[in-house]
Amino acid sequence: MTSPQTAIDISTDGHVHTRLCRHATGEMEEYVLAGIDRGLDKMIFLEHLEAGINYFDRTWLTEEDFEEYFREGMRLQILYREQIEVGLGVEVGYNRQGKDELKKKIGAYPWERVGISCHFLPIGDTGQHINLLSRQQQNIDIARQAGVDQLLSCYFDTLHEAVAELPGTVLCHLDAALRHVPGISFTKEHLQQIDDLLTTVKEKGMAIEINTSGFTMRGEPFPARKFLAMAIGHDIPLVAGSDAHRPEDVGRFFHNLRDYITSAVCP
């Protein structure tokens, strides 16, 4: 098993968003400059791709947005090649009903990284979706009405299917669903689902992202220590991502990651 002290590269930020996703601010070049200022060797943009989602607020890129994303990204790769390596990736939000469209769009570009996540789940037979990672009160209310345990179970099943079905390279947001709902907990059934999911992640040769946005939200990154320990137990590679939604977020809290990994292995 890889030593926890050397299990993660903190010179690369592998999860960066921009204003193209409509819920972040800043141009791509501002994020690149922030990465240079942080002393990073590499950063990977990981913009949102969704398909078949019925939600009142679009939080993902259109086809035209992705065309702009690649044009600008390739320009920045050339312009700053002597200072930082710039990668162009995608964060794919899995939706069973949009699976074929997602596969088609993934195949349309030469992504350096394909992050797998699940932000939206259908709300019964309403034809609408709930945003599981949203802090908006209406999503929290819907989650409580639908049943938190049931939604979490569906979330882990959906992630598992996504990992099995899509050509992913990194699993994002392992335990981030309903993160803004107070007092959520994970049952024994959830823990078994997570273990089964991690088994498939390992079989597919994927990595697990440690998302440092959690330091701001809850004092520790995603995933939490017990889930990180499970991933390490499966000998799954770890990658660092800030989930930056502002240029100043790039590389945030990376200096804490090695100690955090050690604390998960040796509590």
From TrEMBL:
CDD domains: PHP_HisPPase_Hisj_like. Keywords: Amino-acid biosynthesis, Histidine biosynthesis, Hydrolase. The keyword Protein transport does not apply. It is an enzyme of class 3 (hydrolase). Its EC number is 3.1.3.15. GO terms for molecular function: histidinol-phosphatase activity. GO terms for biological process: L-histidine biosynthetic process. It catalyses: L-histidinol phosphate + H2O = L-histidinol + phosphate. Belongs to the PHP hydrolase family. HisK subfamily. This is Histidinol-phosphatase. It comes from Desulfopila aestuarii DSM 18488.
